[in-house]
Amino acid sequence: MVITDETIDYVGILAKLELSDEEKEQAKKDMSNMLDYVGKLDELDTDNVEAMSHAFPISNVFREDVVTNGDDRDNMLANAPEERNGCYDVPKTFD
Description:
This protein is mainly α.
């Protein structure tokens, strides 16, 4: 892939960089080198390689969502200053 001046200008706009002419030329060389290096991956024989999404096996580390405290409404409301219809009774915050 050939890196053009327009590509460098566009990347500079996206990155909010102001590049001098020398910096633009160096960026073109660097980007070309990076793409050439990545292009070497096309040379690899991957016919017998199994596709994977991660390099290491991943398992779910989350615990099962199990309710442990149950319905203990009476004990919770025992500390409430006021209670009405099985709920906390609080003062109005606005009219």
